[in-house]
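Re: How this chain folds, sequence and tokenised backbone to follow

Filed under: protein folding, tokenised backbone structure, sequence and structure records.

Contents: The amino acid chain and a row of whole-number tokens, matched residue for residue.

Body of memo: The sequence and its backbone structure tokens, given next.
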Amino acid sequence: MESMVYIIIAGVVGITAGFIISKIASSGANSRIQKEAEEKADSILKEARLAGDNLKKDKILEAKEQFLKMKSEFEEDSNKKKNLIIANENKIKQREGNLSKEFEKVKRKETELDELQEKLTLQLDVVGKRKIELDKFNEQKVSILEKISNLTADEAREQLVESLKNEAETKASSLIKDILEEAKLSANKQAKKVVLQTIQRTATEHAIENCVSIYNIESDDIKGKIIGREGRNIRALEAATGVEIIVDDTPEAIIISGFDPVRREIARLSLHRLVQDGRIHPARIEEVVAKTSKNIEDEIVEIGERTVIDLGIHGLHPELIKMVGRMRFRSSYGQNLLQHSREVAKLCAIMASELGLNPKHAKRAGLLHDIGKVFPEEIEKPHAIIGMELALKYKEHPEICNAIGAHHDEIEMTSMISPIIQSCDAISGARPGARREVMEQYIKRLKELEALALDFDGVNKCYAIQAGRELRVLVDADSVTDDKASQLSFDISQKIEKDMQYPGQIKVTVIREMRAVNYAK
């Protein structure tokens, strides 16, 4: 390419020189100048031709070298491909040899299989002939046996089957009896083992509920403030709380007597606030008691929440949590109901784990099994049924509801955890010192005494005090006059004599208080 460029340049130079000479000739220059120009042009042309020839030779040599290089590369590449082809051909030949060997092996196997098939065919023919002979022999034996026994083969088969069936039933019944006895024995042992392990793993303290609370004071001087002028403060406190306040010679202590734990707690907290405040008079007493009663409701909710958190129970309805808190102020045969329910929950969880059941459901049912005892309304139903209905109302699991309702056999047990709840309830109540039957009967009698007086018209509140020996009745001053208050006291005492059984005598005190209230605006 470069050689062609140089040739073109030389041509251009020659043409330029000729053009200059023609111009000079045409302008009429002298012959000497023209001759010098022609000689110079010829020399330039010669030099250009010579340079072009040299460049051409160089480029031809370069082209030859490039050709030779490409040729050698091509030959090298061709040799590589040739060698690869030869190697592939060798591999193919080797595979063909291997395939021919495998083919010969297959042919030999086919020949061996054909020989085996022929042998098997001969053996099957022999077996078939022997089977025919055996069938004939069996037919002969059966006919001989039928003649001897006077029975057909089907009749003999039926008799044999029947005898075998009877023998199998006899053996099976004997075996089943042995298995059942062994299962009962092992089940009793295992059940006792599970119960003992459960009891041993749950250690609780038992304290019999009493009807007295003690409020400690710093000095006996406070007793006079609590009693008030002519006893008005202590009377106002007893009327507001429904308990009996006993201020005697006991040093630095005031005794609060009442069968209802909630009333005793309200009276104790109210006394504490009044003593701290220092202002003790009837109006202040009523105000403090009202606030304390509201605070007790909040405390009940807090107790319920703390209980379910301690037991690891989640998702319980707020109303059920509130009822769990109420258990703290309720006793069952002298045993604190919340403590009893917590213990039953723990026992149920342990026993359910031992038996491979759901411990969370068992613990939940154990906590809620006596929830019907703290239902605020009086319903003529067993507490187990009330508790089951509450659990159904608040969307508890059906197994839990059945366990609550069936723990005293009021309904049929349909879940595996129901007998666990019943057993753990019995374990908790049967511990030595856990319960006292007399206490439960005593509290029941006091509640009936209060309910009897509340049935009369005009009665606002009614409190049984002095261990049930006195009944204080607070009436509405607008609807009950003084004369009617006296008659009401007589009527209540007569109804108590008629409807109730009680030791000793009961004093009925009707309190009518007239209040005139106006507001300055």
Notes: Residues 207 and 244 are 23 Å apart (CA to CA). Strands lie at 212-216, 244-246, 253-257, 331-332, 335-336, 459-465, 470-475, 507-512.
